[in-house]
C-alpha cells in the first residue's frame, strides 16, 4: 500500500497510461489519500482507498473518517480492507500465469490454480473438471492442505447437487479433515475443510473451531468469511451469518464467490423474519450465480413471505430453468422430504 496526497491519488484513478507515466505499479496496488482536519474541536483523519480489479482499472473502495485518537485501529482497518480487495486480483493473475505453462511443467500449486476457476460456480460439471487436477496435485504432494480443501469443496458440490451419494459424502469429509490436519497454517485450507464438515458431516462445533482458527491466522481471508457465513446461515446462526457475510463483502468486495455471502445474508435475514432484506440479498446472490437453484428458492421464499405471490412464482419457476443435473435431484430431495 502506498500513502499519497490527493493530487497523486486522483492521478492514480485516471487510468493505466497516467499511472505508468507516474511510475505506479500496474496490478495489485491499493492507495490512500490522507487529509487531516478537525470537527467539534477534535482532530480527525480522512482517508480514501482505491484498488484495481482484474481489468487493472482503479476502483474507489472505501472512505474513512475517524478521530485521530483511533488512528492505529483505523490503520488496521484500512490494511485489512486493502489486502482483502487485492487478493482476488492477485489470485486471478496467478491463474492467468499458470494457463501459459506447459502441462508437463505444472507443480502442485499450479495444478490447484488450474482447478480454481472450475470451483467458482459451484456446479457439478465444473467440479468434475477440477477433481482430476486436484488429485494430480495430491499425487505430487500428498500433504498439500489447500489441495485437500478444494477437493473437499468439489466433492461437497457433487454430493449436494449431484444426487446425495453417501460415498461422495464420505470422500468429501475425508478430504476436509485432511485439509485441516495438513493445512493448519493455511486459512483458506482450514475454511474449505470447515465448510464441508459443517454442511456434509454436520459437526458444527468442529467447523466453527476451524473457521475461527482460519480467521485468527488471517483476518483478511475472504474465503473464510464467505464460506463461514454460509455454514452459519444453514445452521440457523442468523447473527453470525449476517456478521460474517457483511464482513466478507467489506474486506473482499471483488471475490468471484461473493454470491455465497449474499446467500448467507438472505438466510440470516429470513431466519430473523426480515423478508424484504432477505429478498434483496437473495436477488443479489441469484444475479451472481444464475445457475445456482438454491438462490432462486431463497428469493421465492422471501417474496412469498411478504405476500408477493406472483413475483415468488416467477422466482420459483427459475429453479426448473437450471440444468436438469441440478433441478432433478433438488425436486427428488424435496419429494423425499414430503414436499409436493
Determine the N-to-C terminus distance: 55 Å
Query: What is the CATH class name of the largest domain?
Result: Mainly Alpha
Mean pLDDT value: 80
CATH superfamily of the largest domain: Tetratricopeptide repeat domain
Number of domains: 3
Largest sheet: 4 strands, mixed
Number of helices: 16
Q: Considering DSSP H and I runs of 4 or more, what fraction of the residues is helical? A: 55-70%
Principal-axis shape: globular
Strand content: 5-15%
N to C succession of SSEs: EHHEEEHHHHHHHHHHHHHH
For the secondary structure, the number of strands is 4
Rg estimate, integer Å: 22 Å
- Return the CATH architecture of the largest domain: Alpha Horseshoe
Give the strand line-up of the largest sheet.
1-2-3-4
Q: Provide the structure class.
A: alpha+beta
Low-confidence stretches: 1-13, 15-31, 53-60, 324-331, 333-340
CATH domain fold name of the largest domain: Serine Threonine Protein Phosphatase 5, Tetratricopeptide repeat
Write up this protein.
The protein has 340 residues and is of the alpha+beta class. It has 3 domains: 2-86; 101-218, Serine Threonine Protein Phosphatase 5, Tetratricopeptide repeat (Alpha Horseshoe); 221-340, Tetratricopeptide repeat domain (Serine Threonine Protein Phosphatase 5, Tetratricopeptide repeat, Alpha Horseshoe). Helix content is 66%, strand content 10%. It contains 16 helices and 4 strands. The protein has helices spanning 6-13, 16-22, 71-99, 108-115, 124-140, 145-161, 166-182, 187-201, 204-217, 222-234, 238-251, 258-271, 275-288, 293-305, 309-319, 324-336, and strands at 2-4, 30-39, 42-52, 58-67. A 4-stranded mixed β-sheet has the order 1-2-3-4, with helices on both faces. Strand 2 (30-39) and strand 3 (42-52) form a beta hairpin. Helix 3 (71-99) packs across helix 4, helix 7 (166-182) runs antiparallel to helix 8 and helix 14 packs antiparallel against helix 15. It starts with a strand and ends with a helix. Residues 1-13, 15-31, 53-60, 324-331 and 333-340 have low confidence and may be disordered.
Amino acid at each position: 500500500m502506498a500513502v499519497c496526497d490527493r493530487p497523486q491519488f486522483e492521478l492514480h484513478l485516471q487510468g493505466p497510461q497516467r499511472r505508468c507515466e507516474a511510475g505506479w505499479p500496474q496490478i495489485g496496488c491499493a492507495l490512500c489519500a490522507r487529509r487531516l482536519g478537525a470537527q467539534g474541536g477534535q482532530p480527525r483523519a480522512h482517508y480514501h482507498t482505491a484498488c484495481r480489479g482484474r481489468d487493472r482499472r482503479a476502483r474507489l473502495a472505501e472512505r474513512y473518517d475517524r478521530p485521530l485518537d483511533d488512528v492505529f485501529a483505523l490503520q488496521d482497518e484500512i490494511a485489512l480492507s486493502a489486502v482483502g480487495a487485492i487478493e482476488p486480483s492477485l489470485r486471478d493473475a496467478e491463474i492467468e500465469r499458470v494457463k501459459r505453462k506447459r502441462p508437463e511443467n505444472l507443480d502442485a500449486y499450479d495444478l490447484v490454480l488450474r482447478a480454481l476457476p472450475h470451483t467458482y460456480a459451484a456446479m457439478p460439471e465444473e467440479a468434475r473438471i477440477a477433481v482430476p487436477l486436484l488429485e494430480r496435485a495430491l499425487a505430487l504432494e500428498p500433504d498439500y492442505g489447500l489441495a485437500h480443501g478444494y477437493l473437499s469443496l468439489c466433492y461437497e458440490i457433487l454430493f449436494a447437487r449431484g444426487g446425495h451419494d453417501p460415498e461422495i459424502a464420505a470422500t468429501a469429509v475425508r478430504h476436509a479433515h485432511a485439509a485441516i490436519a495438513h493445512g493448519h497454517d493455511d486459512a483458506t485450507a482450514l475454511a474449505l475443510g470447515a465448510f464441508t464438515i459443517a454442511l456434509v458431516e454436520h459437526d458444527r462445533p468442529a467447523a466453527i473451531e476451524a473457521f475461527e482458527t482460519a480467521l485468527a491466522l488471517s483476518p483478511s481471508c475472504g474465503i473464510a468469511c464467505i464460506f463461514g457465513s454460509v455454514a452459519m446461515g444453514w445452521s440457523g446462526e442468523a447473527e453470525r451469518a449476517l456478521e460474517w457475510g457483511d464482513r466478507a463483502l467489506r474486506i473482499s468486495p471483488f471475490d468471484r464467490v461473493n454470491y455465497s455471502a449474499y446467500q448467507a445474508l438472505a438466510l440470516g435475514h429470513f431466519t430473523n423474519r426480515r423478508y424484504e432484506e432477505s429478498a434483496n440479498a437473495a436477488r443479489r446472490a441469484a444475479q451472481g450465480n444464475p445457475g445456482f437453484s438454491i438462490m432462486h428458492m431463497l428469493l421465492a421464499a422471501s417474496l412469498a413471505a411478504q405476500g408477493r405471490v406472483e413475483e415468488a412464482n416467477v422466482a420459483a419457476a427459475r429453479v426448473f430453468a437450471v440444468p436438469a443435473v441440478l433441478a432433478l435431484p433438488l425436486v427428488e430431495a424435496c419429494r423425499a422430504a414430503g414436499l409436493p
